[in-house]
Amino acid sequence: MAYLTREDGERFVIPSYRDVISKRKAQLKDDLLELSSRYGEFITFHRRGMAQFEIAFSRDAGYLFGECVWHYFKRPADLIYCEIIPETTEAYFVLVKDGSVYLDGSFPLENIAEEVLVFTTQQNNFEIFVYGDVPLSEHPQEGKLSFDPQSVKSFTVLTEPLFQHLPVVKAYQLQLVDVVLRQQGIGVFPVKYILAVVVALGLVWMGFTYLNLHKMRMPVAEMPRPPNPFMEFNNTLMTVAPDVELELVVLTVDLLTTMPGWIPTDITYSGGKVTVNVKSLGTNVEYLYDWADHNNASIVIMPGGFSLTMVLPLPAKRGLPDKIYPLDRVIMSLIDRIAVFMPGNVVKVGAFKTKRVFKESDLHIDLVEASPDLVFMIAEQLKDLPLVLTNLTLKINHGLTGTIVLQALGN
Q: pTM of the full predicted structure?
């Protein structure tokens, strides 16, 4: 079945194709159109890295079933969800591995154990949620499959079924491929940009012509230019865009997981510099030094162990803003954007501080065992807002736990 329909008519889709494409965003149009012709005209599109995008295709409109379930359980890296379908011999089933949906849909009960059997012998960290008499159990039981305790982070027996009140997540809504291309600016001729350039050049030419026709013959004493009252506001925002910084940090976390025999435990980022505490898994320090040499990292020996320092290759700073927006409007815009996929009081707002011609406030976004994909989604919401990434602290365990600290500016 390509989709599951609830009693209230809401439709959850099992896509016909999922993939991760590694290309620049501007080069994706032909690939998306070709895949859409084969797998369906409805798609979802999410960034996973600086040049990685996760896509799903279907011939039906609706919401991605597996991703909505994964989001409901706070997006763990490894997840199994199994709920009996009333008056049938089937169950709703979702399996997520390493932050990606591996399997989802409705399955005959006798097939579910077979679907997950391969994972019982692998290194896992599953959060398992079950409802009803399903073929999975926390402890060995006749006729049911159980995992090695080392592969299970938690096993929860739900007190009520989930499917009939599963919240839909707008970020996982399948839309027509043409709509998604326009929303993402892929393959779209930049009419607004061209018009803006033409208008700007026209104004420059008019000004130049006017000055040359009306310049005075007698020299005029130049008065000193008054100080720009918005200089402090402009200088504060003369930084690399916070969404770019946040994405670079997540990519660096991914790079740090490639250290042979060493793992990152704590990460701090500020102003283009990443500091990482690392822990040995019983491997020689020589391997750490070799990895650091190949990845432009510096090693610091501390009383408690070793840490790495890395300077990120930040791109050019963003341009100056052309206006100052009300600070409360800036903050509400960010809260609304993030609430689409992270409901609840996620953004904590600090006190407003008054400067000469603007105000500022510190914003804290707390992460609890978040996946890199979730942090990329947060980064997307920071675009085009007057924000500065001031600090980021993370602990790496079963996901990313820590705090993103932003500075919001407005009047």
A: 0.52
